[in-house]
Design a protein that fits this description.
Layout (H helix, E strand, L loop, with lengths): L9 H4 L20 H11 L3 H9 L20 E8 L12 E10 L4 E6 L5 E6 L2 E7 L2 H19 L5 E6 L1 H9 L3 E5 L3 E3 L9 E3 L2 E5 L1 H9 L6 H19 L8 H9 L2 E3 L3 H9 L7 E5 L3 E6 L2 E6 L1 H16 E3 L5 E3 L5
Parallel strand pairs: 1-6, 3-12
Antiparallel strand pairs: 1-2, 2-3, 4-5, 6-11, 7-10, 8-9, 13-14, 15-16
Helix pairs in contact: 2-8, 2-9, 3-8, 5-6, 5-8, 6-7
């Protein structure tokens, strides 16, 4: 497990994290479109088609030590969201995770925390309880898919992962198009390939605009213009745009179709009852969303361009995540950190 010490000066924490808080009706953590999925499941769970799609997406992972079970309705819960850019047409073979997001949801304090992990972060890769080598964190998926990714992230961050959900980016296009596109402020100009790998077919200029699925996917993918960390920031902007559009009243009628699309392009260890319980935590209360960004530096080893997370930044964000999984409300309704929580 991680040997980093906890951050002792709260003022330093603020120098290493970027928070964006948004009050929402549904309290679901999504890296790409999980909020839509769980909201759809909650609203359309009686439809056999949706239930069949969700059941078909279930896949448990191999663990050396089982994680403690929690009740998402009244206990803090954590997620690992993975985005993979692979399908039968692309035939990429040894797939790596293109998007890695760790998130916590605390139904008691009504707080959500989310951090993007740069795919090139240099960490020990762990599979079946054994450290194989130091490598890019996204290479764990090629070694042992979700099982190795969960073990690697748990060991590196020293936090539990209760649920995982892996999405194929192919569903990304369909969902955004089902919503009628998303409105957002594009931060940079891009010239990117489309989902068929046609170079230069997607061109965007900075500014507020409506993006269709192909354009949003291109913006989420691109990193040649800067780096992997900046790409993670752009993906989080897209997440917020999806949240806003999904919560639009006009989008509710599209939830069933969206759930079917996601269910057929997802793998998760969440059952339908788990998703329903998670959705229930936020239907009556507004949550705050805190987005954290690691400070980092680049270096080269074995001919690879890699990312090293700054120790102070790591400690500060790790402490935030651990606190988020331990916080409860006392009898007066104020939040506190329960140091005795497991």
């Amino acid at each position: 497990m991680s040997k980093y010490k906890k951050q002792s000066d709260p003022s330093r924490t603020n120098n290493y994290k970027k928070k964006r808080k948004e009050r929402i009706i549904l309290s679901i953590l999504i890296p790409l479109f999980t909020l839509i999925l769980i909201g759809a499941v909650y609203l359309a769970r009686l439809f056999a088609t949706v239930e069949n799609e969700i059941d078909a997406s279930f896949a448990e992972i191999e663990r050396q030590q089982p994680v403690e079970k929690v009740n998402p309705i009244d206990e803090p819960v954590s997620f690992l969201f993975l985005g993979v850019d692979n399908n039968e047409d692309r035939q990429l073979g040894s797939t790596r995770a293109d998007s890695i997001i760790y998130a916590t949801l605390n139904p008691t304090t009504h707080e959500m925390n989310m951090v993007s992990i740069p795919r090139d972060t240099f960490v020990p890769i762990i599979n079946k309880g054994t450290t194989l080598r130091y490598d890019r964190i996204n290479s764990a998926y090629a070694v042992g898919e979700e099982s190795a990714m969960v073990q690697t992230v748990e060991e590196w961050l020293d936090v539990p992962i209760h649920y995982y959900a892996t999405f194929n980016f192919a569903a990304f296009l369909d969902i955004i198009d089902e919503l009628g596109g998303i409105e957002m402020n594009v931060p940079v100009a891009i010239n990117e390939m489309n989902s068929d790998d046609q170079t230069g077919s997607i061109k965007l200029e900075p500014g507020y605009q409506t993006l269709n699925g192909e354009e949003a996917l291109a913006l989420a993918r691109t990193r040649k213009i800067d780096n992997d960390v900046k790409r993670g920031e752009r993906q989080q902007l897209i997440i917020e745009a999806i949240i806003r559009k999904a919560l639009n009243f006009e989008s509710i009628t599209k939830y069933t179709g969206i759930a079917e699309t996601v269910g057929s392009n997802m793998q998760t260890n969440m059952r339908l009852k788990d998703m329903t319980a998670i959705a229930q935590t936020g239907l009556n209360d507004s949550f705050s969303i805190s987005t954290h960004i690691f400070e980092w530096s680049s270096f080269t080893e074995r001919g690879m361009d890699l990312v090293r997370i700054q120790p102070d930044s790591f400690e500060a964000i790790q402490t935030e995540l651990k606190n988020a999984l331990n916080k409860t409300n006392d009898s007066t309704g104020s939040a506190r950190s329960d140091d005795t929580a497991s």
